[in-house]
Amino acid sequence: MSSRRAEIEKARRLVVKAGSSSLTTHAGTIDVARIDALVDVLAARRAAGTEIVFVSSGAIAAGLGPLGLANRPRDLATQQAAASVGQGLLFAQYTAAFARHGLTVGQVLLTADDMMRRSHHRNAQRTLAQLLALGIVPIVNENDTVATDEIRFGDNDRLAALVAHLTRADAIVLLSDVDALYTGDPRKPGSRRIGEVRGPADLDGVELGASGRVGTGGMITKVEAARIAGVPVVLTDAASAARALAGDPIGTYFHPESPRLMSGRHLWLAHATTGHGRVLLDAGAVDAVVRRRKSLLPAGVTGVQGDFAAGDPVDLCDNAGRVVARGLVNYDAGEIPDLMGRSTRWLSRELGPEYEREIIHRDRMVVLADG
């Protein structure tokens, strides 16, 4: 841990993510001093020639004080209301803070749907690319005012990883309320700091519980973000942001486990969604989907479980119930029983040409099991 981290120091494009606890006070209001200090660090790196994409949590937390709430609400409607109030306050503060350095910011609010649907995914990618081309600092957050399941996504850690894929960033810096990854609660004796993670073996025995007062993530989402990032990731606290961005050997450094093999949309489908139901496959269909990477056709379907609509993510399972893939389904759950075991040609002839399509197209599917 004595050498500098060249991948961070020399990165031409960085994604930096800050959690709620790094941006707000204990009373649930925006901490202006901490935001200004963090923006000073980001602006300095920007002035040195690095493009910065800033992923900011804190919308819900920033709305707690104005709404008179002592703690993060549990019900979805109040969370959305808090986000509605807090997002504007948070972004106004960022606008003023970056303006001190002559920088303009652009707000980009994303949901899981934006990452999974091809047109939304491409629009997000184009928007971020154009903002960077124009010299704007994009500030990305989940659109918590309309999010449902994804509002509990995990403090934007995995969103940062997917934004890094969208923008082809060179590295990610995750800023938290702890200075590194530890084997357990860092406040307890015997907890050991982990300086580097090269693979799953380095995480053996690590307790990945949630932490923080106003955030929703914890270490588990940060480790998951590092696993899917495909680029180097540094985890440390916001107070150490300047040293982390400079490439100093602080915090925890996650070496990329694998190159970028999936699109951001497929990564989101694999790691940030849950199946709304299950489609059961025969052995031939499992082989086609998993090993040969083919689309799922009606002929290979043996059953359906759950209630889902066309366009929802569903799990594909073998005859033992093991989830082998996940994809965006083309039919409602109620339509599939009439299609099972039939060829697409027969369905087109008997039911109409609109049924001559896959249950799930291979481009909207991610394989989760070994081939």
From TrEMBL:
Keywords recorded for this protein, A-Z: Amino-acid biosynthesis, ATP-binding, Cytoplasm, Kinase, Nucleotide-binding, Proline biosynthesis, Transferase
Subcellular location: Cytoplasm
Annotated positions binding substrate: S57, D144, N156
GO biological process, any: L-proline biosynthetic process
Domain of life: Bacteria
An annotated GO cellular component: cytosol
Principal subcellular localisation of the protein: cytoplasm
Primary enzyme class: transferase
Residues given in the record as ATP binding sites: K17, S176, D177, T216, G217, G218, M219, I220, T221, K222
Enzyme Commission numbers on file: 2.7.2.11
Domain PUA: 277-360
Pfam family, one: AA_kinase
Pathway: Amino-acid biosynthesis; L-proline biosynthesis; L-glutamate 5-semialdehyde from L-glutamate: step 1/2
InterPro entries listed in its UniProt record: AceGlu_kinase-like_sf (IPR036393), Asp/Glu/Uridylate_kinase (IPR001048), G5K_ProB (IPR041739), Glu/AcGlu_kinase (IPR001057), Glu_5kinase (IPR011529), Glu_5kinase/COase_Synthase (IPR005715), Glutamate_5-kinase_CS (IPR019797), PUA (IPR002478)
MF (Gene Ontology): ATP binding; glutamate 5-kinase activity; RNA binding
Classification via CDD domains: AAK_G5K_ProB, PUA_G5K
SMART domains, A to Z: PUA
Recorded catalytic activity of this chain's protein: L-glutamate + ATP = L-glutamyl 5-phosphate + ADP
UniProt record similarity statement: Belongs to the glutamate 5-kinase family.
Function statement: Catalyzes the transfer of a phosphate group to glutamate to form L-glutamate 5-phosphate.
Entry protein name: Glutamate 5-kinase
Protein source organism: Actinomadura rayongensis
Name of the gene encoding the protein in the UniProt record: proB
